[in-house]
Design brief:
Length: about 400
């Protein structure tokens, strides 16, 4: 089967979507399929050699070294570029729409058996669907992020936050018109149905996978080390609550240290809060680390903290389970479904409960060892990228059959 996998941004360190693209494309290639990734910027860097990358250039307005940049006049190649820039300067986020418009007219897609969209859900997909069978993944409805970010914003900033998330209404409209939608958990499916007005029969749940060879127990752990992963510095990830908890923990456990993988801007509210709490010497920040480095970090920690206020799945949580690292996670979104009985669950946003659970595990080596064994077993039994790829191919076949049956009418 010739498979076109679309992703409007695919660099792994931009978030979980890049991780999904890399591992799913490799799994599909291992099953013998011909896979091509069509990606906007930032492009993926570590695709499997059997996977082809086709670049879909944009104005790259959010590049790491020059975010919200002003392009030179010669960089504008047509109306889509103009739309992208105008949306950005009026506080909107253009990438899902403009990427979809570019791929809709991209003749390199001709001849593929199926197209798989990775949560772009832009209007261009509806035109593309007229030509080719289409499947789309909704990791979770971004309406969840929008509500939390609006609630956390001051009244002065709420308009700009609403404007930034203007693409969410488009995603809901487009998703309702794509018959085959994939998502990563039952919780995410239910939330997508509720928030986007989806027919439940459109949704198929296929959990994400983990590389249990990379994410594995590695021997001795560093006393007092807590690990956490937040792909973005946003209220959704609950980092503010975790910082408060670490400050409280250090009263009784002065040796506690937090190793946080995230993109924290030195001028952000999070960075300021670290200073205010006197945690600069207790926190190590990482960004842009490899899977191997992340596996080593998670396996070195005595506990993994997942304080998110919502998660559609949370691949880093599964990676911690695979490392045999005890997890304390919020009882939010898909997290209870993902961890089962392999973690301690706490109320999202409850700093006192989070602190108590972390303190108890840090003080109880036997319970850490038990949870570590249960977590590793759960990862090995339930989460495999080959299984993800096989289940995804079945959804492709259904989409192709549906397209062919309509063509025969």
């Amino acid at each position: 089967m010739r498979i076109a996998l679309l992703s409007y941004r695919s660099k792994e360190h931009s978030g979980g979507q890049g991780v999904y693209v890399r591992h799913l494309s490799r799994g599909l290639a291992e099953l013998g399929h011909e896979v091509t990734v069509f990606s906007g910027q930032p492009y993926p860097e570590n695709l499997d050699p059997r996977v082809t990358l086709e670049k879909v250039p944009s104005l790259d307005l959010y590049r790491d070294d020059d975010p919200f940049r002003t392009p030179k006049l010669r960089e504008f190649r047509g109306p889509i570029d103009v739309l992208e820039y105008l949306t950005m300067i009026t506080a909107g986020f253009p990438e899902p729409l403009t990427f979809s418009l570019r791929v809709a007219r991209d003749r390199r897609l001709d001849g593929f058996d199926v197209v798989h969209d990775n949560q772009c859900l832009g209007y261009g997909l509806l035109w593309l669907q007229r030509r080719l069978p289409l499947v789309a993944t909704v990791h979770h409805p971004i309406s969840k992020d929008r509500r939390l970010d609006i609630a956390a914003a001051s009244w002065r900033k709420q308009w700009s936050v609403r404007r930034w998330y203007g693409f969410v209404r488009m995603q809901a409209r487009v998703a309702r018109r794509i018959p085959t939608l994939l998502t990563v958990s039952g919780a995410s499916a239910a939330d997508t149905v509720a928030d986007f007005g989806i027919d439940p029969t459109q949704m198929t749940v296929i959990p994400l996978g983990v590389d249990t060879d990379v994410f594995r127990p590695r021997g001795e752990r560093v006393p007092g080390r807590i690990a956490a992963v937040a792909s973005a510095d946003s209220p959704l990830k609950g980092v503010a609550h975790l910082l408060e908890s670490i400050a409280k923990l250090r009263v009784e456990h002065p040796h506690v240290e937090l190793h946080l993988v995230s993109t924290i801007d030195p001028k952000s509210a999070t960075a300021r809060r670290i200073e205010e709490l006197g945690l600069s010497d207790a926190i190590t920040l990482y960004r842009g680390i490899s899977d191997e480095e992340l596996g080593e970090l998670l396996a070195s920690a005595e506990v993994m903290a997942v304080p998110s206020l919502y998660e559609g799945f949370s691949l880093p949580t599964v990676e911690a389970l695979s490392c045999g690292t005890p997890v304390v996670a919020s009882r939010a979104g898909a997290l209870p479904e993902v961890v089962g009985d392999a973690a301690r669950l706490v109320e999202p946003g409850d700093v006192g409960e989070l602190t108590a659970a972390l303190s108890e595990l840090l003080s109880d080596p036997a319970e850490r060892a038990r949870l570590g064994r249960v977590g590793r077993d759960r990862a090995e039994e339930r989460y495999s990228w080959i299984s993800v790829a096989r289940a995804t191919v079945e959804s492709y076949r259904s989409a192709i059959e549906r397209k062919n049956s309509r063509a025969d009418r």
